[in-house]
Amino acid sequence: MPEEQTGAPPRRMIVLAAVLAVALAAAVAVLSLVNRSAQDQPDNGPLALVTVPAPQADSPECATLVPALPAQLTSNGKTLDHREIAEPAPPATVAWGAPDAIVLRCGIDRPAELTPTAQLRVVSGVQWLPVEGDGTSTWYVVDRNVYVGLTVPDSAGTGPLQTISDVVAAKLPAVPLRF
Asked: CB-side exposure of 93: number of CA atoms within 13 Å?
């Protein structure tokens, strides 16, 4: 018996449209999962850094400190691997972790915030000057022959500061503060 003419599209067209809609929804869901998975992966490519003045980066102190730094740091229970720095890499600079890297620079200029009234923190016998930034803090070693800056994201725990303090204390002798 032939189908009556009701003005509705043929059943075959309705089924095809439904199948295409389900296929499109599935494709969007799969692409969303793939994209989210890619975003969850840390960026382990070379880290681009701006060069900051580091007049003592080629000093014997930096030549002693930088090779003694660990290949990994622990921050909030997570292991952060050494991170390659993009060329041109600033001298005497080391980084760990992704996407929010921890960066150490040796031989930098004396921090302007270092004054006789500055609030210093002592960790493992090393005097640090903390300077808060936007989303990061930079801790400056201020009682050695060279200034060292350690920039950490606000989400970092105290592990990196402790580890670096131990290395600095072992490799660089303390000197009186210079204002």
From this structure: 24
CATH annotation of 60-171:
3.40.1000
Which one is predicted more confidently, 32 or 146? Answer: 146
Determine contact, residues 156/75, Cβ cutoff 8 Å.
Answer: yes
Q: Which residues contact 81 (CB under 8 A, 6 or more apart)?
A: 44, 71, 72, 96, 97
pLDDT digits (tens, 9 = 90+) for 92-123: 999 999 999 999 999 999 999 999 999 999 99
3-state secondary structure (DSSP) of residue 14: helix
Measured distance between the N- and C-terminal CA atoms of the chain, rounded to whole angstroms: 101
DSSP 85: B
Residues 134-179 have pLDDT tens digits of: 999 999 999 999 999 999 999 999 999 999 999 999 999 999 999 9
Domains of the chain, residue spans: 1-41, 60-171
| Cα 9 from Cα 6, distance rounded (Å) | 9
Indicate the helix (H) or strand (E) that contains 121.
Answer: strand 121-123
Structure tokens at 168: 């600095």
